[in-house]
Write a structure and sequence with these properties.
Radius of gyration: 45 Å
Strand content: 25-35%
Number of helices: 9
Shape: elongated
Number of domains: 3
Structural class: alpha+beta
Largest sheet: 6 strands, mixed
């Protein structure tokens, strides 16, 4: 470009020059021209100023757009958290006050009226109200789950009445930890747990331990060691207690252990003798005392073979009532 370029051409090229889109030769010619041409130099200055303002406006619009996005995101985040809190609160409210949770803490009575088994119960926790029940399973495994929630204006009473069709009760139906027979007999939870823990062989110490745990022997009478005689009949189970008793504690201790011994004789099928031993702390020395009950002795007291009391829930419950274990 040796010839002088017209101003109109330079001004047409200046936008490209400002955006650095011209070739190096064209760029040199434009720079030479605007150095010597006041008119084009002024045009160039105005062009640059307008581009700077335009860029600033674009930047402000971009910032404003980002602010709007951030504000919108913050709102969505806030409403998301608020919605989650409301949902969790609603679920907790429904669970605590309306639907409730399963409970076994109730007393129960049952009777047949026509073709219906009528279950009347009362929650034992005064702070809880009856929420409803659910019938689960089928056949011999059919059960009723009782639900309780917190006392509220919606649900205030802990009493309940449930009507079950006779067709839904084959022989027993479970209600919490209890069972109801198809003649209306209510089997308490202790009898249910013990009956289902029956042990056919005295040599199975873990099964023996389950029965002893349900009877709460160690909790009520103290820790003990077990000694089994299984090499020849009569088979026996001896409990040696670690606790030293005072003379005045013996009567209560032996009464409780006698009751437990009756149940152990009934539920461990081939055991014939239950023994227990403890020490009594006297003024000068300790005295070791031992006691035993045989299946024959227990049967005489009961007027029936002790082993017959493990044939059904009802028979076992009668034994528990007889020996004072509820």
């Amino acid at each position: 470009m040796s010839e002088k370029i017209k101003c109109e051409v330079i001004q047409d090229l200046l936008p490209l020059y400002v955006d650095d889109l011209t070739s190096s030769e064209t760029k040199n010619e434009i720079e030479k021209h605007i150095l010597n041409c006041q008119k084009c130099n002024l045009f160039y200055s105005d062009l640059k100023s307008s581009l700077i303002i335009e860029n600033q406006e674009d930047r402000l619009m971009e910032i404003d757009y980002l602010k709007k996005i951030r504000t919108s995101s913050n709102k969505k985040y806030f409403f998301g958290i608020l919605s989650s809190i409301l949902i969790v609160s609603l679920v907790l409210f429904l669970k605590l006050f309306i639907f409730g949770t399963p409970t076994n803490n109730f007393i129960l009575d049952a009777e047949f009226i026509g073709d219906k088994l009528v279950l009347n119960g009362e929650l034992l926790d005064s702070g809880k109200a009856y929420s409803g029940y659910k019938l689960n399973g089928s056949g011999e495994n059919k059960s009723i789950v009782i639900y309780s929630g917190l006392v509220s204006p919606f649900k205030k009473s802990g009493g309940f009445e449930i009507l079950i069709s006779v067709e839904d009760v084959e022989s027993y139906i479970s209600i919490g930890e209890k069972k109801v027979k198809n003649d209306g007999t209510v089997i308490n939870s202790m009898a249910v747990k013990l009956f289902e823990a029956k042990n056919p062989y005295i040599g199975n110490m873990s099964a023996n331990g389950r029965i002893a745990n349900i009877l709460m022997i160690s909790e009520n009478l103290g820790g003990y060691k077990n000694f089994l005689k299984t090499n020849e009949e009569p088979y026996s189970w001896k409990l040696i207690f670690a606790k030293e008793l005072k003379p005045g504690e013996e009567e209560f201790f032996n009464s409780k252990m006698t009751s437990c011994a009756f149940v152990l004789l009934a539920l461990v099928d081939n055991v014939s003798i239950i023994e227990w031993e403890y020490e009594v702390s006297l003024s000068d020395e300790n005295e070791t005392k031992s006691f035993m009950i045989t299946k024959e002795e227990a049967s005489i007291v009961l007027g029936d073979n002790i082993k017959n009391y493990s044939v059904s829930y009802e028979k076992l419950q009668k034994l528990l009532y007889f020996v004072g274990i509820n």
